[in-house]
Description:
Radius of gyration: 16 Å
Shape: globular
Helix content: over 70%
Structural class: mainly alpha
Mean pLDDT: 83
Number of helices: 9
Strand content: under 5%
Order of helices and strands: HHHHHHHHH
Number of strands: 0
Amino acid sequence: MAGIGVHKRLLTLIDLAGTFVLAIHGASVAAAAGLDLLGIVVIALISAMGGGIMRDLLVGETPPEALRGWPLLSVALVGAALAMLFAHQVEDIPEWPLIVIDALGLSLLAVAAAEKALEYKLTPIAAVLMAAIGGCGGGALRDVLLNEVPAVLRTDFLATAAIAGAAVLVIARRSGLPPGWAALAGGLTCGVLRLVAVWQGWQLPHL
């Protein structure tokens, strides 16, 4: 039982960290698009919590965790509030730090989604799919609201990185690696693959 409690706390911390990071990233994208302060906050919240809400609905956890308790919503609001206070500074942040922030948020939420899928006894393939949805769903909603084709459908190994990281996590868990180490291996795989893909200009083939 103690091990289950530690695992649950680890999953919550990963979810909170990913939510905070993607709230900041969403705010930066909204600021660069010229939205007002309310628009920045809305996009920050959607970027941070959209993927997690979709993940929870798909695994049957209703209402979604982000809407049921205060931690996730509070963390997202803190990120949004920071964006409101420092809107001009956020708008001037160079591209590479934002890419690193995005890769970190993707890794954290992809790992959290895969872990939650396994917690709900979904199949390994379903866990990998949940990682793609949980990691990229908020960004896809953000892009749609900003009238752009979602980046996950066109560029930079977003979903591919999440899928690869989740696959490593699932294989590590099946091989007997402790959950924390499995999550670290999956998160590192996702984050490094995303950054290397941007650096090297990797893309999936286009027709």
